[in-house]
Structures are given as structure tokens and as C-alpha cells.
Write a structure and sequence with these properties.
By secondary structure, the chain is of the alpha/beta class. It has a single domain (3-330), classed as TIM Barrel. Helices cover 37% and strands 18% of the residues. The chain has helices at 33-45, 61-70, 117-131, 150-162, 176-185, 206-212, 252-272, 276-286, 300-308, 316-330; strands at 3-5, 12-14, 16-19, 50-52, 78-83, 85-86, 93-98, 109-113, 136-141, 166-172, 190-194, 216-220, 292-296. The strands form three sheets. The chain has an eight-stranded parallel barrel, surrounded by six helices. Strands 6-8-7 form a three-stranded antiparallel beta sheet, with no helix packed on it. Strand 4 (50-52), helix 2 (61-70) and strand 5 form a beta-alpha-beta unit. The protein starts with a strand and ends with a helix. It binds NADP nicotinamide-adenine-dinucleotide phosphate.
Length: 334
């Protein structure tokens, strides 16, 4: 496993992180806590030290499960969580409506984006309690909003850092302009953005910005939520309550297109004796500016496989060959 620095924070984290969204169950058709805890332990034993969660992932449930799993091994973990999506108060900007299982326009729960200083500080206390710890290594603003100036948000984050409650500050789903503003008011160490073979907008914006400004880039959903593993065949069915049951990206037509692309990438995987999931993750972490890949996993087997991608290094020829294939297919897949 390779480890890379998070900006100037002094923190080093494994290039493969374990994303704990699915572990919360919400939007993923439920989850089993015992499996989740075994998955976290297997990930740590395989060299992953970065775990990314958020209060939103199961309305605190993902954080609680992560907290239980790491209680006796906290010092081995770079613990990343988020703030700024709230459901206990109507404040800030309405982001979506949901129920306890999934986002739905008729859902009884209203989720707001709110990055007001007092709310962030309140959220951090809730996260610390659920995570059973006295400090969060990386706190990221989950989504950006327009009702609180970034100067005020960053002011609160810097105070939390000075108090030792957080070790490094990150943002997510942000533009380079928003990152510039964070940087004007404090120290920004991490940016977390959607990035995979199928989602490459960051190449024109956040990736070069992070590279130039020594900000760690956490790629989220690098397996395109499982599509890039080759295990989402046209006949696979996702249960209600799993976002993939509803998403146009998981249409049979898209699955076939992705499988065609993966078939062309298979020889590179074979040459390294790795799986397609490992190839997709290793491709992501090899991209210029992309320092870490946050990969979700539901089982010990998956997390061990994903951690294995941390060892893979491609030659320049292989990178060029994969680039041509991904360029040709990736942009056609919605
Ligand atoms: N900041 C944000 O707004 C944001 C948004 C999204 C995600 N994230 C973060 O990024 C993390 C990763 O993203 P993600 O969970 O959306 O998607 P992902 O990592 O692309 O895909 C994860 C899913 O793929 C399947 N999978 C994983 N490893 C596999 C393997 N080796 N073989 C076969 N299937 C495998 C699992 O689902 P099945 O087994 O059910 O198929 C798993 O839940 C999240 O957990 C979260 O921490 C952040």
C-alpha cells in the first residue's frame, strides 16, 4: 500500500480509502452491521488507514458503526467525516427530501445544506460522540451552500483545528473558486470529488487545481458504484431502496457499454493478474493530481480486493493504452 500526504497537514493516508456510505445502509438497500465491522477490520489489516464517512450516511448510522469498529484501534485510523448536511432543522438551503431508506421527492425528511459556524460546531460534537473519539482527522464540508459566507465557515473550521478537535480541513463538491476562498481564510488540505473512468469533469478543474495548490484529492465513487467491477451484468437486479435500482446510469444499455469498455481493458488486468475492480481503482489513483481513491465495500472479500489496487503500478505504455480506451468509451456513457 502506498501512503500520501494530505497537503501540509502532517497527516499521511493510504492511497486507497474505505468509503463508508454503503455501510450506513441508506441509499444502498440496507446493510448488516456485523458485516460492516468485519469489512472495516479487514480493510485496516490490508493496509487501508483512511476511512471516510459522513453524518448523512444513514443519519448517523455509518458513523456509529465506524466508531464501534475502530474503538480499540483508533490510533491506526485516519478518520475522515463531513459536516453541512442536516436534517434536524430547516436552515440553509433545502437539498433534497428523503425517507429513512432513500432520497424521494415525497419523503418526510427534509435535508438542508447548512455550513453556519454554530451548526458545524454542533455537528462535530454529534460526530465525535457517534465515532467514539475525541478528534476527527479530516473534516470536510459535504456540499457547498450560498447562505453562509465561506469566510465564516472556514473561521469555524480553523477554530476547531486550533482546539484539536479536527486535524485537517477539507471540502467536497466544490469549485476551484470556492477552494480559493477557503484557502484565503485558512488551511485547506483535502478536496473530495466524484471521479472515475466514467466521471471525468474534475480533469478540467479540481484535479489540476489541487495538484498546483498541494491539496489532496479524494476521488469518490471510483468504481462508479460497482459498474466498473465487471460484476454488474445486464441481468443483475438491485432491490428497491438501493439507488442503483432507479439510476439511469444503471440501464441495461449503459451496463453493456461499460462491459464493452472493460473487455478492452481486460488484457491490462490480465498482464498484472488483477481484477477489473483493481484496474479501475489503480487507474484512478494513477491520474495526475488524484492522490487518494475512496472505495466503498460491503464485505471482507471486496475490501481486500480493493486494497490490493494500492500496490498496482502501470507502465507508461499501459497508461496510454487505457487512456485511449477510456476516452473512446467513457464519454459515451451517461
Ligand atoms: N462527498 C460526496 O458527496 C460523496 C458522494 C459519494 C460517495 N462518497 C464517498 O466515496 C465512497 C465511495 O463511493 P461509493 O460508495 O458511492 O461508490 P464506489 O466506491 O464506486 O462503489 C462501491 C460499491 O461497489 C461495490 N463494490 C465495491 N468493491 C467491489 C469489488 N471488489 N467487487 C465487486 N463489487 C464491489 C459494492 O456494492 P455492491 O456489492 O452492493 O455491488 C460497493 O458498495 C463512499 O462510500 C463515500 O465515502 C462521497
Amino acid at each position: 500500500m502506498q501512503y500520501r500526504k494530505l497537503g501540509n497537514s502532517g497527516i499521511e493516508a493510504s492511497v486507497i480509502g474505505l468509503g463508508a456510505w454503503a455501510i450506513g445502509g441508506w441509499m444502498w438497500g440496507g446493510s448488516d452491521d456485523k458485516d460492516a465491522i468485519r469489512t472495516i477490520h479487514a480493510g485496516l489489516d490490508a493496509g487501508i488507514n483512511l476511512i471516510d464517512t459522513a453524518p448523512m450516511y444513514g443519519y448517523g448510522h455509518s458513523e456509529e458503526v465506524v466508531g464501534r469498529a475502530i474503538a480499540d484501534r483508533r490510533e491506526r485510523v485516519v478518520l475522515a467525516t463531513k459536516c453541512g448536511l442536516i436534517w434536524d432543522e430547516e436552515r440553509g438551503e433545502l437539498r433534497f427530501r428523503a425517507d429513512e431508506k432513500i432520497i424521494t421527492s415525497q419523503g418526510p425528511i427534509k435535508v438542508y445544506k447548512c455550513l453556519a459556524p454554530d451548526k458545524i460546531k454542533w455537528e462535530v460534537e454529534q460526530s465525535l460522540r457517534r465515532l467514539k473519539t475525541d478528534h476527527i482527522d479530516v473534516l470536510q464540508t459535504h456540499r457547498q451552500e450560498s447562505t453562509t459566507p465561506i469566510a465564516e465557515t472556514m473561521g469555524a473550521l480553523m477554530e476547531l483545528k486550533e482546539e484539536g478537535k479536527i486535524g485537517a480541513i477539507g471540502c467536497s463538491n466544490a469549485t476551484p473558486q470556492q477552494m480559493e476562498e477557503y484557502m484565503a481564510w485558512g488551511e485547506l488540505s483535502v478536496d473530495q470529488e466524484l471521479y472515475s473512468m466514467l466521471d471525468r469533469n474534475a480533469e478540467e478543474s479540481n484535479l489540476p487545481f489541487c495538484r498546483e495548490n498541494n491539496i489532496a484529492f479524494f476521488a469518490y465513487s471510483p468504481l462508479a458504484q460497482g459498474l466498473l467491477t465487471g460484476k454488474v451484468q445486464p441481468d443483475r437486479e438491485f432491490p428497491e431502496g438501493d439507488q442503483r435500482h432507479y439510476k439511469p446510469r444503471f440501464s441495461v444499455e449503459n451496463r453493456k457499454q461499460v462491459l464493452d469498455m472493460l473487455a478492452e481493458l481486460q488484457p491490462v488486468a490480465d498482464a498484472h493478474q488483477i481484477s477489473l475492480a483493481q484496474l479501475a481503482i489503480a487507474w484512478t489513483k494513477a491520474r495526475p493530481g488524484c492522490s487518494h481513491a475512496l472505495v466503498g465495500a460491503r464485505s471482507e472479500e471486496q475490501v481486500r480486493e480493493n486494497a490490493g489496487a494500492g500496490e498496482v503500478m502501470f507502465s507508461d505504455d499501459e497508461i496510454a493504452m487505457m487512456q485511449e480506451i477510456v476516452d473512446r468509451h467513457g464519454h459515451r456513457i451517461d
